[in-house]
Amino acid sequence: MRHHELAFTGPATFFKAPYRSLAEDWRAEVGFLGIPYDFAVGYRPGARFAPGALREASGRFAPGAEGYFDFETETYCLQGVHLVDAGDVDPAQLEYQESFRRITQAALELRGRVGLPVFVGGDHSVTYPLLRAYADLDEFYVVQLDAHLDFSEARNGTRFANSSPFRRAVEELPGLKSVFVVGLRGLRTNPEAYRAARARGHRLISARKVRESLSEVLEQLPRGQKVYLSFDADVLDPSVLPGTSSPEVEGLTYAEALAVARETVRGNTLVGFDLVELAPNLDPSGRSSLVGARLLAEVLCSRYRDLPT
Amino acid sequence: MRHHELAFTGPATFFKAPYRSLAEDWRAEVGFLGIPYDFAVGYRPGARFAPGALREASGRFAPGAEGYFDFETETYCLQGVHLVDAGDVDPAQLEYQESFRRITQAALELRGRVGLPVFVGGDHSVTYPLLRAYADLDEFYVVQLDAHLDFSEARNGTRFANSSPFRRAVEELPGLKSVFVVGLRGLRTNPEAYRAARARGHRLISARKVRESLSEVLEQLPRGQKVYLSFDADVLDPSVLPGTSSPEVEGLTYAEALAVARETVRGNTLVGFDLVELAPNLDPSGRSSLVGARLLAEVLCSRYRDLPT
Amino acid sequence: MRHHELAFTGPATFFKAPYRSLAEDWRAEVGFLGIPYDFAVGYRPGARFAPGALREASGRFAPGAEGYFDFETETYCLQGVHLVDAGDVDPAQLEYQESFRRITQAALELRGRVGLPVFVGGDHSVTYPLLRAYADLDEFYVVQLDAHLDFSEARNGTRFANSSPFRRAVEELPGLKSVFVVGLRGLRTNPEAYRAARARGHRLISARKVRESLSEVLEQLPRGQKVYLSFDADVLDPSVLPGTSSPEVEGLTYAEALAVARETVRGNTLVGFDLVELAPNLDPSGRSSLVGARLLAEVLCSRYRDLPT
Amino acid sequence: MRHHELAFTGPATFFKAPYRSLAEDWRAEVGFLGIPYDFAVGYRPGARFAPGALREASGRFAPGAEGYFDFETETYCLQGVHLVDAGDVDPAQLEYQESFRRITQAALELRGRVGLPVFVGGDHSVTYPLLRAYADLDEFYVVQLDAHLDFSEARNGTRFANSSPFRRAVEELPGLKSVFVVGLRGLRTNPEAYRAARARGHRLISARKVRESLSEVLEQLPRGQKVYLSFDADVLDPSVLPGTSSPEVEGLTYAEALAVARETVRGNTLVGFDLVELAPNLDPSGRSSLVGARLLAEVLCSRYRDLPT
Amino acid sequence: MRHHELAFTGPATFFKAPYRSLAEDWRAEVGFLGIPYDFAVGYRPGARFAPGALREASGRFAPGAEGYFDFETETYCLQGVHLVDAGDVDPAQLEYQESFRRITQAALELRGRVGLPVFVGGDHSVTYPLLRAYADLDEFYVVQLDAHLDFSEARNGTRFANSSPFRRAVEELPGLKSVFVVGLRGLRTNPEAYRAARARGHRLISARKVRESLSEVLEQLPRGQKVYLSFDADVLDPSVLPGTSSPEVEGLTYAEALAVARETVRGNTLVGFDLVELAPNLDPSGRSSLVGARLLAEVLCSRYRDLPT
Amino acid sequence: MRHHELAFTGPATFFKAPYRSLAEDWRAEVGFLGIPYDFAVGYRPGARFAPGALREASGRFAPGAEGYFDFETETYCLQGVHLVDAGDVDPAQLEYQESFRRITQAALELRGRVGLPVFVGGDHSVTYPLLRAYADLDEFYVVQLDAHLDFSEARNGTRFANSSPFRRAVEELPGLKSVFVVGLRGLRTNPEAYRAARARGHRLISARKVRESLSEVLEQLPRGQKVYLSFDADVLDPSVLPGTSSPEVEGLTYAEALAVARETVRGNTLVGFDLVELAPNLDPSGRSSLVGARLLAEVLCSRYRDLPT
């Protein structure tokens, strides 16, 4: 029997939820799947440690039975929502095609069990195999929060690095109708990738645009659609989240990024959600993981809406 | 004989002020008392090292005889104000009642010697024994800058952790009429604590409110009262001050927090001031301590007002 | 279904063993219990994070079904030994008597379930409540690997800090006949504590003695007894394990410390084993946790002896 | 033959430009000169490592043949601009007059070879010998982005520390007509220095002013002049760039600082540009160097203007 | 013209040697080739940064024209030996077969230009493509200093990770007659790999053996052969070199490891030498890179033998 | 009134001794003087922070009234010895001649007040002005524990860096008859310096010699002389003390270095003692400062000899 729990006690699972293997038979409202894969990072590695670090950090935000309470609105969220930690996909290291196969398969299994699958990367390359688990959908959209476009045909000699997941996904998934990218601000960009994305009808919104008018940006998001939300940690300003492979100055504030995520969740049917590119080893203060954990919680709060007490 | 002094020379004392033990007889305008106690932290410890770290960092802001000069207004502050470092309270480690007794006693002694006692924690639990040193006041108020309410009846099996100091204080001190809390934004909050605080008439102001309208918040602060100012380092945004046990995103900017502190000091009679929950070990860049030291200096500047040259 | 597992995948448990709560009914050969309690540390805290860090680090040493293979002797150890992670005791933070009560109770429950309970602290104060779980034994001994005696009557105003666990234990447990302390080398020692320990017949062996003649030291260890092994991480030289509250130069090598632990295990009946005072936050290289995890594994190897293939 | 290059491959040079020694004969549009000198820092050293760290970090922003592409305006900058890394000045360590002599001489040589010399410090004291390389100009101006005035007659017993470069420069260079300082916000300021600067007609603009109205500040900058831009990394808010000797809260955002630099470059003839006081050792996250490298690139982009594709 | 040089000045190259691209035509006695590839690391990444870090650190050991002087023997080594930094191989990131092809090709080119090629990894997987550059040799041997055997058929789903380079090499290179492995001490070993290595006649020597009798170990090394020396940084004790992916306690001292390397070099014809698995990001003290740089220098000293003055 | 004191409480002074300014009149047995000067370091700076860091760390070894107790010999040392912290010399930063003048003057003043002056650097350049304070002695010797000779005529363009203090001292002080250097092991040595030192009759003993036979080395030390002991932190192996500018592998163990220091103290009349080149910023684990503090204590113990109880 457990007593009142401190944040750091017990084998760490996401938000202190029970761990249930995908090999077992179970159902839940929300399932977390870790994807400790960062072999596709072309700069500073470390995102492989994010599932572990987010399990630890999220212990600080473990919701009670009544969820979270907002004192300003006197409302609760996540009340009674059943969370499960479904463990991690085991990467096949160098053999990325096999790793990607395992990721797609695990995502499919998780989709079959839960109302909302939450994927915790890993680098952004994993979003391609994750999206393959949605190949059955006739029409869906991606909202991507990201400093970078990640739509390169190839980079550093490979077509499957973390610069290309959305290029690969749209090639393979006819149901993926469009990608809305919010937060762009890389310096060394790839003109071909931008032109290809625009040619395909993707919506490309810079971080500067968000700062100028968040409300205009929110209006451009999809409505009433099936949407997969892909949150690259580097969309946030590095002062908020320094622990990421390729930080870029002048990023979104946490509130801005959360507003985009919230509007996405509230205006559409969320079919999946990933948080990628958080590299805890690059932030000795530990706050990057805390920010990531809080973000997971608040996006879930948007989905499992605030109910009056 | 000392020459021009570099910031890091000499045995470190607060702002290079002389050290005078409370065992000796002396008087001064401002007295600093360190309280290296963080045994009540339920998450990441380290605030026990804050008095030492702030002594070191404050060497960089040691005021000259003429105090600090503001080039925009051509005014000075802290001119000729006599500062003393009164040393630290020695905690009794696990025996918190004894530690608290020593803290209260040292605070009483300091109050008897100086115009303004400044307490440097330590975690926030120490504000309870510090406030006990004001039991003689018939009516006074607390302005608390904090991300968290710290008004829980109990937590993790104890009623005296850093989640409860103000609950304990109001129970014991009839003179403590109300607490104004500014900067609230925790995610995993305690509904009962919020309701109890409101029921007692406390003013609870979120960080979001401060961002929306700082001037409205300033208007809600007490006026013309005896006020104790309790500054929890985590009220600041973690990008400004990452070195704290429980950082929370979307905190106050330094300017916002200073404005609240300044307005408090200028509109009331400041009877005491603490800075707590700064954990220097959690910030390898060292800037958290520099921010804390500068904050101490600028709050004192508000009190020992700018005089035309 | 899991594939070949990388060290860092999955919710971390000790050596990737299954987690089974003490609230459930189960039996195993070895059970690990974490005790994330470091409120009794009078210097640099952090041992509260050791259970989490050792769970993560031990993933690198997760034994396969056949245990570990030694290529020089062509033998295996830990073959087929059933390990369970029994989770953590939840400390009651400031209320040490309640924390200690919970620790003793959990230890008792674990003793009832497993052949060998392994306790992962936490600071050394927890060994006192752990030893209370052996109050039923008429005669048993402690072998303590430690740089410090930890036998003070009181320190810093308390009798229950990490300087006193063995003083408290011998006062309360008539069955605890003697303590063999190996590795002593503190500078600021407490003469009264040394005299009291010797008066009670404890064996006090310095690190210098170990360096002079390890074999003589091994001969002085108990034989054929019920023994509880208490391993304070600071017995190791800080170059081997820098992540500890109070490192002392000229400590034992890993091989020396392991030899003492092995001889203890092989020559006696091991009734319990703790590893304490490892503070992962004090070692940014991460190797302290890897050393601690390997030590746990190798002590278990001594117990579950090498069998020819 | 090189393939697509990852950021971190090859001997690091500024933006992966070729290294050409000043002992050789060559011409280029832009030449970088490192000045690994921080012996004049009176607080936390480390700027000596900035040239090396910026060479490494700038690998991530190595422009391709077509320069950088801005997807919002569909324009390019730095297209076809020839960059050269001219290596470092070797300081004579303690012998600052000799170090300064070498710096002036190397700057003169670089000026003779390139359209725009870019100097990477080192601490701010090096701007004095750098400016001496412009003694031939009859009239030129300095725009200084800085938290501190750096115009002290002397400090800590010396007239040549990083608190005094501009005082020394105006004494020696009749052509240096005025200094525009933007971003001032130090607490422990030197009244005499401020008065002397104002008496000489320097324009002193606080960080607060920039926040109040960036456009008004931009209007106060020089126009149509020969200008030397001196960028002290501490003008940026420490949340953006923590790696600097003397961080000061409430600094400029990256966008604000870049706007000031851009306006300076576009409205005038840029004769030289330095980036100083970046101390990579004070920022274990590595992002300070990335910010510095990006800033160098974007200032160059302002100079080698955006051309329609 | 350069003055006396400090360790950290100038674009960093190995030992401040000139950089010459493999695309150019040149000859030298010793050529360094960096291989910033660590995508095959199954635990803690970072070896991709070793070539850059060793270039920086080796600046401290830049030999003068007369090489290094040994005051005890009054001899010099490396006198007049011509060193060249040949740059890095650009990995193709995820596409390991392509990366390996590039590595082999670059190694071949370097072999054609220099008396002794020195390869700086990267993880240990790169030794396989490096050894392929010696396919022309009818008979040669490998001396491998390593904590781990690295002879697994496959691991974590791949046959090309850093656990398998020597298995792959012996399969492909009939000229590679045997591997002498010194320093073995992993805990979680692979019995099949050990048996396969022994079956093929490899010599497997534990770290324990080295401690027992270094001279006996030295006698077992090959004599009079063509030898490739592969130095895995983790053969060293983690107290000496903490910056490595998989540190193992009870490693070789620097003197022991150097003795093995020296004896190998002096008793045979050294055809190639690699230093791998140094991960500078895992050692914030920076000393791991300094140890690695010194080791490179001292192995070269063994090869370019001490000559009387 | 102080209670039992934790290590980290109170304004930090050396071993919690009272601070007495050299401007006041006092006498004591032992006086500590900090010299926070590292402007003469040609590699990694940080020794300027050593006096502050050693004040903090030495709190852990604050001797009680009875000094330290050795349980093996049942003896005490430092019993009743009066310690004073005399503060720091204020460097004149760039103006090294002025800094050196202040150091010499302060050392002279301290010598006039105490039985044994203990100097805490700072880099090794400060030993030259310290030794000048002994110009009145007709005959005295230096025992220097050091990895490097520090006897260069000049380096990097200066004759006063930390490579030359003993060259300068012997030039200026006829009474300084010889220097015994123990622990030498640098790689990039200066042949001229070695020859000059030998020509002057200095005794040069390598670290290798110490390892081969410590007793032979001890026999070579001076006897019955006035001796100044200069302890460069880098004489210790970097595994023991990583926090130093220029760590060199294969250094002395703590026990070996202490044995040399002890023998020096016991066999001679100790006239002064310095500890230099400890750079706390290069060791995030904090143990370098703890080692340095312990070393100070144990050298004092050798001087204020063990008395039977």
UniProtKB/TrEMBL annotation, chains A, B, C, D, E, F:
The keyword Manganese applies. It comes from the Bacteria. Mn(2+) 2 binds at H124, D232, D234. GO terms for molecular function: agmatinase activity; guanidinobutyrase activity; metal ion binding. Keywords: Hydrolase, Manganese, Metal-binding. GO terms for biological process: putrescine biosynthetic process from arginine, via agmatine. Pfam families: Arginase (PF00491). Its EC number is 3.5.3.7. Its cofactor is Mn(2+). Mn(2+) 1 binds at D146, H148, D150. Binds 2 manganese ions per subunit. Belongs to the arginase family. This is Guanidinobutyrase.
